[in-house]
Amino acid sequence: MACNASKTSLLRSIAKRGYSTCPRPAGDVSGINVKVLENKLVVASAEATVPVTRVSLVLGAGSRNEAYDTQGASHLLRLAGGLSTQNSSAFAIARNIQQVGGTLSTWGDREVVGYTVTTTADNAETGLRYLQDLLQPAFKPWELTDNAKTLLNQLEAVSKEQRAVELVHKAAFRKGLGNSIYAPRFQLGKLSSESLLHYVCETFAAGRAAVVGVGIDINTLSGFAQTLQFPTGSDKPSSPNWYGGDARKDTAGHQTVVAVAGQGGAVSNHKEALAFAILEQAVGAGAATKRGNSAGLFGDAVACAGGSAAVKAINASYSDAGLFGFVVSSDSKDVGKAVEFLVRALKSGAVSDKDVARGKALLKARVISQYSSDSGLIKEVGRQAALTRNVLEADALLAAIDGISQSEVQAAAKKVGSSKLAVGAIGNLANVPYASDLA
Amino acid sequence: MSSYIARKGPAVFSNLGRWAYNMSGFNQYGLHRDDCLYENEDVKEAVRRLPRKLYDERNYRIMRALHLSMTKTILPKEQWTKYEDDVKYLEPYLNEVVKEREEREDWNKNH
After folding, report:
1. Does A95 contact B107 at a Cβ distance shorter than 8 Å?
2. For a surface tag, which of A111, A356, B55, B109 has the fewest beta carbons within 10 Å of its beta carbon?
3. Are A91 and B104 inside 8 Å of each other by CB?
């Protein structure tokens, strides 16, 4: 089975592209075609002529779908991307994709889990052959236990900033979107293959999934998408409530990382989501120069507070809810003041026209750079297709960003300023204020 | 998992098979056929994959058999494993291991 798969061509209709065809110049943003199949599966493809084809299967199986006792299932789905499926063994998947110089990678967030296969354009069918198998994972118990160490390593590698962001989600949403994208430690080795298969059955629905490609034509891709066999799947996950409050984790040492957030914009409200994205860049989504200071409201607030704090705005837009705030990392003795100043900045909702102009410029630069690399483009297209069931081309997105007025950004800042705050903190928590102190 | 349900009894019932089974003698120690397989790499891997309960039962039967052998006794006749009750619990796992090995060998031959 493993041996002949790389030789047979399952999808003969793939248009062969030679290297003699001029590849797309770097930075040129290609057009994106979108198709919706009868089973509501969205197929989107950026039909550029590129030597490397990427195809991604994006499934609505992110951590927000986990119940209390299946927490960590989406992390295991990411981990099990290369393990045996019901039709092919882990060995066959790895060797056949390697043989044609391809890679299979997994990624995910709270909404989706994505499998991306990257191959040269003339070997795309080998990649697709194994990509389609991933819809029927086997989760053999011994393969899961063999990979327990990898899972533990992945958990050890999660940074404190990331854990603070996970904690603030927990405080803000409690369940659903509050579930961490990383498996909690108490679930290590506890998730049986039966419960994982049940999770797959519930979440791998065509109506929540998308098949997206870069460098493959839309007809080939939708031909491939039509052959996919989805388990029945269920409806959308329940809509989240905003709670706010604290989620704290004490650890040894002097470092403290605090994430504070209020309600942000949902993807379903496109204008508001864009306004929050502009706001994120305007108040300081990281320094423009290496080890430089973050510009904008948050950067100023940290500079006023003194000490050695580093701040970054966080903005997360999910399909029906959002979260906006900052994550600050500092020595424990300075963190109280830094958080106090930053919360004051967050609540002030002061955004000048200069801030908005800078925010728009930064956001547009980020969007263009995301769209101009194939690896960035496939993820962006995959997320958009899975969440909004449509994909905006770069020009349309840039025009939409330009169309956001200053008052809309100010309204976004007001919304987050007046919302109940959620605080996620990890590290030495001696001087970290509680959410009730910040109100 | 559904595909790992073990076969109970022999593939084909026959009086000759019954006679041979009873003559072999391992059933008098309460062992099953799959407890007596020579532990080559394939069997070791298949045993490793057994669910915890089957794995423990196998170990218990083997320990009991070793103890009986040491004391030069056998089980009372009503506790002997019967020809039609012999569970081939390792078979599905072993088949899969062999298939995977053959797949690897095949690949190495062709690439």
Report:
1. yes
2. B109
3. yes
